[in-house]
Design goal:
Length: 408
């Protein structure tokens, strides 16, 4: 549903500071326009994060005009015609109007143009090809407003051509269909995607993971993955294999929205292999691997059984394992699992009260003996539900030391 307020009227009402900054930019670059996602989301009445503009001036001219007006400007992507103006700490990307000279499915060689329609024609979807000038007039060369109102995600021009220019548009299509689309995906787009699904293999895994992460935490994730599977895309994104039904069961349990948790439910391959292929960050790779851990809190366990788990494992890892186990066991909301997680969430992480210094102070020789004795006392502390305090652990330590000396 298109919002009732024109884009700039909404900005003046809801984001007056941003509107004031845009007016400063328009005083310097009167021919510049808001473009892309900002126009789309303003028309929908949704939150806007990035305010991107386009200008018919060459990037060097844009930089000179901004600097002359005392505005900080950063040459963030001169080869692609992009500079960034910074006003009161807020960045505004300004890109010179472009046309593609050459594309290879991943990168494009561009040339500058003064033709707004030509620039809009190189964009991916009609809903992203609109622009808004300083007077608030929305320029819409490819019926983007009608598509936006109808929940229709269409490529600008021929879908086949748009995809061969940049294969990442295949994944972007599904992400935008999930967020802005209604009903079945555009038939022409799906035919083109099915025929060109293999182009996914040309993309860097970093770009693939960035889009997959956004899909995983977005709306309609199960339906989106099913569409990707049916046209042959998902097999190129996750060649290790996946189980969409397990992810659906996880979502049915009302699990937290987290890309790694959802990826753990989806993939059937060995987590470390998946992490390496997708080049996940160290933190994400570790988190994904930990979801396969064997230590598992279960409904009905009391604090004495849960405390040792919490002492030895990250709380988030334990909680995620419970969500995945619930998905496997029932795939539905369950008060017993909810009660378990409430208990785990409310428990303080037990901290073993002894350190190596305590053993050295008691006369234990530094080295292997300290580690061995400390490990035995800690195991005793864990088996007792982590309830023994410092004094009790000191007493146990002395007993272990006596036994060690007796056996010498």
């Amino acid at each position: 549903m298109i919002a009732a307020d024109p884009p700039l009227a909404r900005l003046r009402r809801d984001m007056p500071d941003v509107m004031a900054q845009l007016e400063r930019l328009w005083a310097i670059l009167p021919d510049a326009r808001l473009v892309g996602g900002a126009v789309r989301d303003l028309l929908l009445g949704r939150g806007v994060t990035d305010m991107d503009l386009a200008s018919p001036h060459a990037p060097e001219s844009v930089m000179e005009l901004l600097r002359h007006a005392g505005i900080k400007v950063v040459p963030t992507g001169l080869a692609h015609g992009t500079v960034t103006a910074v006003l009161d700490g807020r960045p505004f990307e300004i890109t010179t109007l472009r046309r593609d000279e050459e594309t290879d499915g991943r990168h494009a060689t561009v040339a500058w143009t003064h033709d707004w329609r030509e620039d809009a024609a190189r964009r991916d979807f009609t809903i992203n090809a609109m622009s808004c000038d300083s007077a608030g007039v929305v320029h819409d060369y490819f019926n983007g407003q009608a598509d936006l109102a109808a929940g229709r995600i269409r490529f600008v021009g021929e879908a086949h051509q748009r995809i061969t220019e940049d294969a990442l548009r295949i994944l972007r299509f599904f992400r935008f269909q999930a967020r802005y689309g209604r009903g079945a995906p555009d038939g022409a787009a799906m035919v083109a995607i099915t025929g060109l699904a293999g182009m996914i293999d040309r993309l860097s895994v970093e770009r693939i993971w960035l889009e997959l992460r956004r899909i995983l935490v977005g709306p309609q994730v199960v339906a989106t993955l099913e569409q990707m599977r049916d046209c042959g895309v998902l097999g190129h994104v996750l060649p290790e294999g996946c189980d969409i039904s397990r992810l659906a069961r996880l979502l049915a349990c009302d699990a937290p929205v987290d890309a790694i948790l959802r990826l753990a439910a989806l993939v059937v391959g060995e987590p470390r292999a998946v992490s390496q292929r997708l080049r996940l960050s160290r933190a994400d790779s570790t988190a994904l691997a930990q979801t396969r851990g064997t230590v598992m809190p279960l409904p009905g366990m009391d604090a004495a059984r849960l405390a040792p788990m919490l002492a030895d494992h990250d709380r988030r890892d334990l909680m995620w394992r419970t969500w995945l186990r619930q998905a496997d066991d029932s795939g539905a909301p369950d008060p017993a699992w909810t009660a378990l997680r409430t208990m785990v969430d409310g428990m303080e992480k037990p901290v073993f009260p002894l350190t190596g210094r305590d053993l050295v102070a008691a006369g234990c020789n530094p080295g292997l003996t300290v580690g061995r004795v400390l490990g035995q006392v800690r195991q005793w502390w864990l088996e007792g539900g982590c309830t023994a305090d410092h004094a009790a652990c000191i007493g146990r330590m002395q007993t272990v030391l006596q036994h060690e000396r007796h056996n010498l």
